[in-house]
Protein backbone atom coordinates (compact mmCIF):
# COMPACT_ATOMS: atom_id res chain seq x y z
CA UNK A 1 0.00 0.00 0.00
CA UNK A 2 1.23 3.48 -0.82
CA UNK A 3 1.94 5.46 2.36
CA UNK A 4 0.33 8.87 1.76
CA UNK A 5 1.40 10.17 5.19
CA UNK A 6 4.96 9.58 4.09
CA UNK A 7 4.59 11.13 0.63
CA UNK A 8 3.03 14.22 2.18
CA UNK A 9 6.07 14.75 4.40
CA UNK A 10 8.29 14.54 1.34
CA UNK A 11 6.97 17.87 0.01
CA UNK A 12 7.98 21.31 1.22
CA UNK A 13 4.76 23.30 1.08
CA UNK A 14 4.59 26.81 2.54
CA UNK A 15 3.23 26.84 6.10
CA UNK A 16 -0.56 27.19 6.19
CA UNK A 17 -1.11 26.88 2.46
CA UNK A 18 -3.69 24.45 1.08
CA UNK A 19 -2.44 23.71 -2.40
CA UNK A 20 -5.19 22.53 -4.75
CA UNK A 21 -3.24 23.32 -7.91
CA UNK A 22 -0.96 20.32 -8.27
CA UNK A 23 -2.71 19.73 -11.59
CA UNK A 24 -1.06 22.88 -12.99
CA UNK A 25 2.26 22.99 -11.19
CA UNK A 26 3.20 20.39 -8.60
CA UNK A 27 4.93 21.49 -5.36
CA UNK A 28 8.61 21.13 -4.53
CA UNK A 29 9.90 17.94 -2.93
CA UNK A 30 12.06 18.55 0.17
CA UNK A 31 14.90 16.68 -1.49
CA UNK A 32 15.01 19.13 -4.41
CA UNK A 33 17.30 21.61 -2.68
CA UNK A 34 20.00 19.13 -1.56
CA UNK A 35 19.76 17.28 -4.88
CA UNK A 36 20.25 20.47 -6.87
CA UNK A 37 23.11 21.55 -4.61
CA UNK A 38 24.78 18.17 -5.11
CA UNK A 39 24.33 18.49 -8.85
CA UNK A 40 25.89 21.95 -8.91
CA UNK A 41 28.81 21.10 -6.63
CA UNK A 42 29.55 17.48 -7.44
CA UNK A 43 28.52 17.27 -11.07
CA UNK A 44 28.63 20.53 -13.00
CA UNK A 45 31.40 22.24 -11.02
CA UNK A 46 33.72 19.27 -10.63
CA UNK A 47 32.96 17.02 -13.59
CA UNK A 48 32.29 19.65 -16.23
CA UNK A 49 32.24 18.07 -19.69
CA UNK A 50 33.14 14.64 -18.29
CA UNK A 51 29.70 14.57 -16.63
CA UNK A 52 28.07 13.39 -19.85
CA UNK A 53 29.83 10.07 -19.20
CA UNK A 54 30.72 10.00 -15.51
CA UNK A 55 27.26 11.12 -14.37
CA UNK A 56 25.34 9.50 -17.22
CA UNK A 57 23.80 12.79 -18.34
CA UNK A 58 23.58 11.55 -21.89
CA UNK A 59 21.16 8.70 -21.22
CA UNK A 60 18.98 10.36 -18.60
CA UNK A 61 16.45 11.01 -21.37
CA UNK A 62 15.87 7.26 -21.27
CA UNK A 63 16.34 6.35 -17.61
CA UNK A 64 13.91 9.10 -16.58
CA UNK A 65 11.69 8.15 -19.51
CA UNK A 66 11.36 4.59 -18.19
CA UNK A 67 10.45 5.86 -14.72
CA UNK A 68 7.72 8.09 -16.17
CA UNK A 69 6.77 5.20 -18.46
CA UNK A 70 5.95 2.94 -15.49
CA UNK A 71 3.32 5.45 -14.38
CA UNK A 72 1.53 5.33 -17.74
CA UNK A 73 1.87 1.60 -18.40
CA UNK A 74 4.63 1.93 -21.01
CA UNK A 75 7.14 -0.91 -21.29
CA UNK A 76 10.81 0.02 -20.67
CA UNK A 77 12.59 1.41 -23.70
CA UNK A 78 9.54 3.12 -25.20
CA UNK A 79 9.53 6.54 -23.49
CA UNK A 80 12.01 9.43 -23.45
CA UNK A 81 11.89 12.80 -21.72
CA UNK A 82 13.00 16.19 -22.99
CA UNK A 83 11.80 19.36 -24.72
CA UNK A 84 8.31 20.73 -24.06
CA UNK A 85 4.90 19.22 -24.53
CA UNK A 86 4.07 21.60 -27.40
CA UNK A 87 7.12 20.22 -29.23
CA UNK A 88 6.09 16.65 -28.46
CA UNK A 89 2.66 17.36 -30.00
CA UNK A 90 4.43 18.40 -33.18
CA UNK A 91 6.70 15.35 -33.18
CA UNK A 92 3.95 12.82 -32.55
CA UNK A 93 1.38 14.27 -34.95
CA UNK A 94 3.93 14.79 -37.73
CA UNK A 95 5.09 11.18 -37.34
CA UNK A 96 1.47 10.01 -37.30
CA UNK A 97 0.63 11.91 -40.52
CA UNK A 98 3.54 10.22 -42.28
CA UNK A 99 2.19 6.78 -41.35
CA UNK A 100 -1.06 7.39 -43.27
CA UNK A 101 0.06 9.66 -46.15
CA UNK A 102 -3.15 9.32 -48.16
CA UNK A 103 -5.40 10.66 -45.37
CA UNK A 104 -5.71 14.38 -44.81
CA UNK A 105 -7.82 14.70 -41.68
CA UNK A 106 -6.47 15.18 -38.17
CA UNK A 107 -9.22 14.68 -35.60
CA UNK A 108 -9.20 16.25 -32.16
CA UNK A 109 -11.96 17.93 -30.14
CA UNK A 110 -12.88 21.46 -29.15
CA UNK A 111 -12.21 20.73 -25.47
CA UNK A 112 -8.54 20.10 -26.15
CA UNK A 113 -5.90 22.35 -24.65
CA UNK A 114 -5.34 25.14 -27.19
CA UNK A 115 -1.59 24.62 -27.70
CA UNK A 116 -2.24 21.12 -29.04
CA UNK A 117 -4.60 22.57 -31.64
CA UNK A 118 -2.33 25.53 -32.43
CA UNK A 119 0.64 23.23 -33.05
CA UNK A 120 -1.40 21.09 -35.43
CA UNK A 121 -2.56 24.24 -37.26
CA UNK A 122 1.09 25.23 -37.74
CA UNK A 123 2.04 21.74 -38.85
CA UNK A 124 -0.79 21.72 -41.39
CA UNK A 125 0.39 25.06 -42.79
CA UNK A 126 3.94 23.78 -43.01
CA UNK A 127 2.89 20.62 -44.85
CA UNK A 128 0.74 22.69 -47.22
CA UNK A 129 -0.85 19.53 -48.60
CA UNK A 130 -4.58 20.02 -48.03
CA UNK A 131 -4.75 18.80 -44.44
CA UNK A 132 -7.72 19.64 -42.25
CA UNK A 133 -8.07 19.74 -38.45
CA UNK A 134 -11.51 18.68 -37.21
CA UNK A 135 -12.60 19.63 -33.70
CA UNK A 136 -16.06 18.29 -32.89
CA UNK A 137 -17.50 18.40 -29.37
CA UNK A 138 -15.74 15.85 -27.14
CA UNK A 139 -18.89 13.69 -26.96
CA UNK A 140 -18.86 13.38 -30.75
CA UNK A 141 -15.28 12.18 -31.18
CA UNK A 142 -16.24 8.52 -31.56
CA UNK A 143 -18.74 9.27 -34.34
CA UNK A 144 -16.13 11.33 -36.16
CA UNK A 145 -13.57 8.53 -36.36
CA UNK A 146 -14.10 7.60 -39.99
CA UNK A 147 -11.99 6.27 -42.84
CA UNK A 148 -11.12 9.85 -43.80
CA UNK A 149 -9.19 10.33 -40.57
CA UNK A 150 -5.43 9.80 -40.53
CA UNK A 151 -4.49 10.93 -37.04
CA UNK A 152 -6.66 11.05 -33.93
CA UNK A 153 -5.09 13.40 -31.39
CA UNK A 154 -6.92 13.47 -28.08
CA UNK A 155 -6.16 14.74 -24.60
CA UNK A 156 -7.47 12.10 -22.23
CA UNK A 157 -8.50 14.41 -19.38
CA UNK A 158 -10.07 17.78 -20.20
CA UNK A 159 -8.04 20.58 -18.58
CA UNK A 160 -11.17 22.55 -17.74
CA UNK A 161 -13.78 20.03 -16.63
CA UNK A 162 -11.73 16.91 -15.84
CA UNK A 163 -13.93 14.87 -18.21
CA UNK A 164 -12.09 11.72 -19.24
CA UNK A 165 -12.19 10.09 -22.65
CA UNK A 166 -12.42 6.31 -22.99
CA UNK A 167 -8.92 5.60 -24.21
CA UNK A 168 -9.38 1.97 -25.13
CA UNK A 169 -12.61 2.55 -27.06
CA UNK A 170 -11.13 5.40 -29.09
CA UNK A 171 -7.94 3.48 -29.90
CA UNK A 172 -9.88 0.39 -30.95
CA UNK A 173 -12.18 2.37 -33.21
CA UNK A 174 -9.32 4.40 -34.71
CA UNK A 175 -7.23 1.32 -35.40
CA UNK A 176 -10.30 -0.33 -36.86
CA UNK A 177 -10.52 2.34 -39.55
CA UNK A 178 -6.76 2.47 -40.08
CA UNK A 179 -6.02 5.70 -38.20
CA UNK A 180 -3.10 6.46 -35.91
CA UNK A 181 -3.66 7.67 -32.34
CA UNK A 182 -1.80 10.28 -30.29
CA UNK A 183 -2.78 10.63 -26.62
CA UNK A 184 -1.93 13.71 -24.65
CA UNK A 185 -1.59 12.64 -21.02
CA UNK A 186 -0.83 16.08 -19.54
CA UNK A 187 -3.66 15.74 -17.01
CA UNK A 188 -3.44 11.94 -16.73
CA UNK A 189 0.17 11.13 -15.83
CA UNK A 190 0.28 10.89 -12.05
CA UNK A 191 -3.47 11.50 -11.85
CA UNK A 192 -5.19 8.33 -13.07
CA UNK A 193 -4.00 4.82 -13.94
CA UNK A 194 -3.13 4.70 -17.63
CA UNK A 195 -2.13 1.64 -19.62
CA UNK A 196 -0.68 2.88 -22.89
CA UNK A 197 0.94 -0.52 -23.51
CA UNK A 198 -2.22 -2.53 -22.86
CA UNK A 199 -4.33 -0.16 -24.98
CA UNK A 200 -1.70 -0.27 -27.73
CA UNK A 201 -1.75 3.44 -28.49
CA UNK A 202 0.62 4.55 -31.24
CA UNK A 203 1.92 7.61 -29.39
CA UNK A 204 1.51 9.14 -25.95
CA UNK A 205 2.91 12.48 -24.82
CA UNK A 206 2.67 14.62 -21.72
CA UNK A 207 4.42 16.98 -19.34
CA UNK A 208 6.04 16.37 -15.97
CA UNK A 209 5.47 19.68 -14.17
CA UNK A 210 1.81 19.04 -13.33
CA UNK A 211 0.97 15.99 -11.17
CA UNK A 212 4.50 14.60 -11.49
CA UNK A 213 6.00 17.59 -9.63
CA UNK A 214 9.07 17.99 -11.85
CA UNK A 215 9.19 21.80 -11.39
CA UNK A 216 8.28 24.77 -13.60
CA UNK A 217 9.13 23.98 -17.22
CA UNK A 218 10.13 20.39 -16.42
CA UNK A 219 10.73 18.19 -19.48
CA UNK A 220 7.96 16.61 -21.50
CA UNK A 221 7.78 12.93 -22.45
CA UNK A 222 6.94 10.91 -25.53
CA UNK A 223 6.09 7.22 -25.74
CA UNK A 224 6.05 5.31 -29.03
CA UNK A 225 4.56 1.82 -29.41
CA UNK A 226 7.32 -0.83 -29.64
CA UNK A 227 5.92 -2.01 -33.00
CA UNK A 228 6.68 1.43 -34.49
CA UNK A 229 10.21 1.96 -33.24
CA UNK A 230 11.83 0.65 -36.44
CA UNK A 231 9.86 2.89 -38.76
CA UNK A 232 8.62 6.00 -36.96
CA UNK A 233 9.79 9.22 -38.65
CA UNK A 234 11.46 11.65 -36.26
CA UNK A 235 10.81 14.83 -38.22
CA UNK A 236 12.61 16.96 -35.64
CA UNK A 237 15.72 15.11 -36.70
CA UNK A 238 18.29 16.37 -34.22
CA UNK A 239 21.65 14.85 -33.43
CA UNK A 240 20.42 13.20 -30.22
CA UNK A 241 18.24 10.93 -32.34
CA UNK A 242 21.02 10.02 -34.73
CA UNK A 243 22.30 6.45 -34.98
CA UNK A 244 25.81 7.64 -34.10
CA UNK A 245 25.70 11.19 -32.72
CA UNK A 246 29.45 11.29 -32.17
CA UNK A 247 30.29 10.18 -35.70
CA UNK A 248 29.30 13.75 -36.68
CA UNK A 249 28.10 12.47 -40.01
CA UNK A 250 26.65 15.25 -42.18
CA UNK A 251 23.55 13.22 -43.03
CA UNK A 252 20.81 12.19 -40.62
CA UNK A 253 20.21 8.50 -39.94
CA UNK A 254 17.73 7.84 -37.15
CA UNK A 255 18.76 5.49 -34.37
CA UNK A 256 17.51 2.09 -35.60
CA UNK A 257 14.66 0.51 -33.69
CA UNK A 258 15.06 2.55 -30.53
CA UNK A 259 13.17 5.28 -28.74
CA UNK A 260 16.34 7.41 -28.88
CA UNK A 261 15.22 8.50 -32.33
CA UNK A 262 12.60 10.72 -30.69
CA UNK A 263 15.29 12.66 -28.85
CA UNK A 264 16.18 15.99 -30.44
CA UNK A 265 19.05 17.92 -28.86
CA UNK A 266 20.84 18.65 -25.61
CA UNK A 267 18.31 18.60 -22.76
CA UNK A 268 18.38 20.68 -19.57
CA UNK A 269 20.24 18.40 -17.17
CA UNK A 270 19.48 20.75 -14.27
CA UNK A 271 15.78 20.20 -14.80
CA UNK A 272 16.40 16.44 -15.03
CA UNK A 273 17.77 16.64 -11.47
CA UNK A 274 14.47 18.06 -10.27
CA UNK A 275 12.44 15.53 -12.22
CA UNK A 276 14.53 12.68 -10.88
CA UNK A 277 14.00 13.90 -7.30
CA UNK A 278 10.24 14.02 -7.86
CA UNK A 279 10.29 10.53 -9.38
CA UNK A 280 12.06 9.21 -6.26
CA UNK A 281 8.69 9.79 -4.58
CA UNK A 282 6.67 8.41 -7.50
CA UNK A 283 8.78 5.25 -7.77
CA UNK A 284 7.06 3.99 -4.61
CA UNK A 285 3.52 4.95 -5.56
CA UNK A 286 0.96 2.46 -6.83
CA UNK A 287 -1.30 4.24 -9.33
CA UNK A 288 -4.35 2.23 -8.23
CA UNK A 289 -3.87 3.28 -4.59
CA UNK A 290 -3.43 6.86 -5.76
CA UNK A 291 -6.58 6.76 -7.84
CA UNK A 292 -8.66 5.31 -4.99
CA UNK A 293 -7.47 8.14 -2.74
CA UNK A 294 -8.11 10.72 -5.46
CA UNK A 295 -11.69 9.50 -5.87
CA UNK A 296 -12.29 9.54 -2.12
CA UNK A 297 -11.00 13.12 -1.79
CA UNK A 298 -12.81 14.35 -4.92
CA UNK A 299 -16.11 12.91 -3.71
CA UNK A 300 -15.58 14.65 -0.38
CA UNK A 301 -14.85 17.98 -2.10
CA UNK A 302 -17.91 17.73 -4.35
CA UNK A 303 -20.21 16.76 -1.49
CA UNK A 304 -18.95 19.56 0.76
CA UNK A 305 -19.12 22.27 -1.92
CA UNK A 306 -22.57 21.23 -3.07
CA UNK A 307 -23.96 21.33 0.44
CA UNK A 308 -22.14 24.42 1.70
CA UNK A 309 -21.67 26.56 -1.44
CA UNK A 310 -24.86 26.15 -3.51
CA UNK A 311 -23.99 29.07 -5.82
CA UNK A 312 -21.35 26.86 -7.45
CA UNK A 313 -22.40 24.34 -10.08
CA UNK A 314 -20.41 21.16 -10.71
CA UNK A 315 -19.15 21.02 -14.30
CA UNK A 316 -17.03 17.88 -13.90
CA UNK A 317 -18.61 14.50 -14.55
CA UNK A 318 -20.34 13.12 -11.49
CA UNK A 319 -19.11 9.59 -12.16
CA UNK A 320 -15.58 9.38 -10.65
CA UNK A 321 -14.50 6.92 -13.34
CA UNK A 322 -15.35 9.52 -15.99
CA UNK A 323 -13.05 12.14 -14.40
CA UNK A 324 -9.37 12.83 -14.03
CA UNK A 325 -8.06 14.08 -10.70
CA UNK A 326 -9.32 17.65 -10.70
CA UNK A 327 -12.80 18.93 -10.03
CA UNK A 328 -14.32 22.07 -11.52
CA UNK A 329 -17.24 24.28 -10.62
CA UNK A 330 -18.83 27.05 -12.65
CA UNK A 331 -19.60 30.32 -10.86
CA UNK A 332 -20.39 33.62 -12.54
CA UNK A 333 -17.87 35.46 -10.34
CA UNK A 334 -15.40 32.57 -10.44
CA UNK A 335 -12.33 34.67 -11.15
CA UNK A 336 -12.85 37.09 -8.25
CA UNK A 337 -13.95 34.29 -5.95
CA UNK A 338 -10.79 32.30 -6.71
CA UNK A 339 -8.68 35.40 -6.06
CA UNK A 340 -10.36 35.80 -2.66
CA UNK A 341 -9.72 32.13 -1.91
CA UNK A 342 -6.06 32.48 -2.91
CA UNK A 343 -5.76 35.52 -0.63
CA UNK A 344 -6.96 33.15 2.11
CA UNK A 345 -4.12 30.74 1.26
CA UNK A 346 -6.20 28.15 -0.57
CA UNK A 347 -4.68 27.84 -4.02
CA UNK A 348 -6.85 26.65 -6.87
CA UNK A 349 -7.15 28.29 -10.26
CA UNK A 350 -9.55 29.71 -12.79
CA UNK A 351 -10.17 28.90 -16.42
CA UNK A 352 -12.19 31.18 -18.68
CA UNK A 353 -15.04 31.80 -18.92
CA UNK A 354 -16.25 30.94 -15.40
CA UNK A 355 -14.58 27.75 -14.16
CA UNK A 356 -13.01 27.37 -10.71
CA UNK A 357 -10.65 24.43 -10.71
CA UNK A 358 -9.45 22.34 -7.78
CA UNK A 359 -6.66 19.82 -8.29
CA UNK A 360 -6.68 16.75 -6.06
CA UNK A 361 -3.17 15.39 -5.64
CA UNK A 362 -3.23 12.71 -2.93
CA UNK A 363 0.55 12.69 -2.54
CA UNK A 364 0.24 15.84 -0.45
CA UNK A 365 -3.51 16.61 -0.02
CA UNK A 366 -5.68 14.97 2.64
CA UNK A 367 -9.24 15.11 3.99
CA UNK A 368 -8.44 17.88 6.48
CA UNK A 369 -7.20 20.10 3.66
CA UNK A 370 -10.41 19.61 1.71
CA UNK A 371 -12.60 20.37 4.71
CA UNK A 372 -10.61 23.48 5.63
CA UNK A 373 -10.60 24.74 2.02
CA UNK A 374 -14.36 24.40 1.64
CA UNK A 375 -14.84 26.10 5.00
CA UNK A 376 -12.96 29.15 3.73
CA UNK A 377 -14.80 29.11 0.42
CA UNK A 378 -18.13 29.01 2.22
CA UNK A 379 -17.21 32.07 4.30
CA UNK A 380 -16.03 34.03 1.26
CA UNK A 381 -19.38 33.40 -0.44
CA UNK A 382 -21.43 34.19 2.67
CA UNK A 383 -19.57 37.47 3.28
CA UNK A 384 -19.51 38.22 -0.47
CA UNK A 385 -15.84 38.95 0.00
CA UNK A 386 -15.20 38.28 -3.71
CA UNK A 387 -16.80 41.67 -4.45
CA UNK A 388 -13.71 43.44 -3.08
CA UNK A 389 -12.05 45.68 -5.67
CA UNK A 390 -8.65 43.97 -5.37
CA UNK A 391 -10.04 40.61 -6.52
CA UNK A 392 -11.34 41.93 -9.85
CA UNK A 393 -8.09 42.67 -11.69
CA UNK A 394 -6.82 39.89 -13.98
CA UNK A 395 -3.16 38.92 -13.80
CA UNK A 396 -1.09 38.08 -16.86
CA UNK A 397 -1.23 34.38 -15.97
CA UNK A 398 -4.52 33.04 -14.59
C1 LIG B 1 -0.49 21.78 -19.78
C2 LIG B 1 -0.78 21.32 -21.15
C3 LIG B 1 0.05 21.68 -22.23
C4 LIG B 1 1.20 22.61 -22.04
O1 LIG B 1 2.15 22.53 -23.05
P1 LIG B 1 3.59 23.17 -22.81
O2 LIG B 1 4.32 22.97 -24.06
O3 LIG B 1 4.19 22.43 -21.64
O4 LIG B 1 3.40 24.60 -22.45
C5 LIG B 1 -0.24 21.16 -23.48
N1 LIG B 1 -1.30 20.34 -23.67
C6 LIG B 1 -2.12 20.00 -22.66
C7 LIG B 1 -3.27 19.09 -22.93
C8 LIG B 1 -1.90 20.49 -21.38
O5 LIG B 1 -2.73 20.17 -20.38
TrEMBL record:
Reaction(s) catalysed by this chain's protein: 3-hydroxy-L-kynurenine + H2O = 3-hydroxyanthranilate + L-alanine + H(+); L-kynurenine + H2O = anthranilate + L-alanine + H(+)
Any one Gene Ontology molecular-function term assigned to this protein's record: kynureninase activity
Highest taxon listed in the record's lineage: Bacteria
InterPro entries in alphabetical order: Kynureninase, PyrdxlP-dep_Trfase, PyrdxlP-dep_Trfase_major, PyrdxlP-dep_Trfase_small
Entry-linked Gene3D superfamilies: Aspartate Aminotransferase, domain 1, Type I PLP-dependent aspartate aminotransferase-like (Major domain)
Known cofactor(s): pyridoxal 5'-phosphate
Protein's GO biological process: anthranilate metabolic process; L-kynurenine catabolic process; L-tryptophan catabolic process to kynurenine; NAD+ biosynthetic process
Alphabetized UniProt keyword annotations: Hydrolase, Pyridine nucleotide biosynthesis, Pyridoxal phosphate
NCBIfam families cross-referenced by the UniProt entry: kynureninase
PANTHER family per UniProt: KYNURENINASE
Assembly behavior: Homodimer.
Similarity comment: Belongs to the kynureninase family.
Name by which UniProt lists this protein: Kynureninase
Species annotation: Oceaniovalibus guishaninsula JLT2003
